[in-house]
From TrEMBL:
Residues 1-25 form the signal peptide. This is YfaZ. It comes from Panacagrimonas perspica. InterPro entries: YfaZ. It comes from the Bacteria. Keywords: Signal. Pfam families: YfaZ (PF07437).
Length: 200
């Protein structure tokens, strides 16, 4: 990937490892797109607060801006979701989460962010229990945005396969779009990626 920021990757990678080291049931997530890299950690919210359900999620994406491939972007987030059973049908089980993220974006010399609301949905097929389907959506409108950013939206889908019970490989699609204050909407990322999820 052109212009890869090695210090960002090393710093975010170290932060993710430190976050997951002292506890169990954390998930390390890494995904590589054509011009991007995402690193993240999520785990039980009980590690941070006295709650019996929910997840925290921290991570970031670094890459070339889709609309301006000579420029780079950095998108960082920290958030929490209330998680649980989202219903089940014959042969499938749904789980999901709803919550909020604090999102920071640096793109083409513009800095800002948003408080984004959203969540995720996960589907497990009971007769093919190594397959996983995931979808997520996060949206921060103008009133919840700050700095040079007046809107933020991120959504994605993926399908994964557990090679081991604690190690999944997946392919997916992700789009990240921001509105620039006084300017146009900009696609930071819009494309496919391949990734791994490792549970500790």
């Amino acid at each position: 990937m052109a212009g890869l920021n090695v210090r960002f990757l090393a710093g975010l990678g170290l932060a993710c490892l430190l976050a997951s080291a002292p506890a169990r049931a954390e998930v390390f997530d890494a995904a590589i797109g054509e011009d991007s890299l995402r690193l993240g950690v999520n785990g039980p919210l009980s590690r941070l607060f006295a709650v019996d359900k929910g997840e925290y999620d921290v991570g970031g994406v670094y890459g070339d801006i889709e609309d301006f491939d000579s420029e780079h972007f950095l998108s960082l987030h920290a958030g929490a979701t209330l998680t649980g059973d989202a219903g089940a049908t014959d042969g499938a089980k749904f789980s999901g989460g709803l919550g909020a993220r604090l999102q920071y974006v640096n793109a083409d010399h513009e800095n800002g962010g948003a408080l984004a609301l959203g969540g995720n949905l996960r589907l497990k097929l009971l007769n093919a229990d190594r397959l996983r389907f995931n979808a997520n959506l996060w949206y921060g409108p103008d009133p919840a945005s700050f700095g040079d950013i007046d809107e933020f939206i991120e959504y994605g889908v993926s399908i994964g396969y557990e090679l081991l019970r604690d190690a999944e490989i997946y392919i997916g699609y992700r789009k990240i779009e921001v509105g620039i204050d006084g300017g146009p909407d900009v696609d930071l990322e819009d494309g496919a990626h391949i990734g791994i999820r490792l549970e500790f």
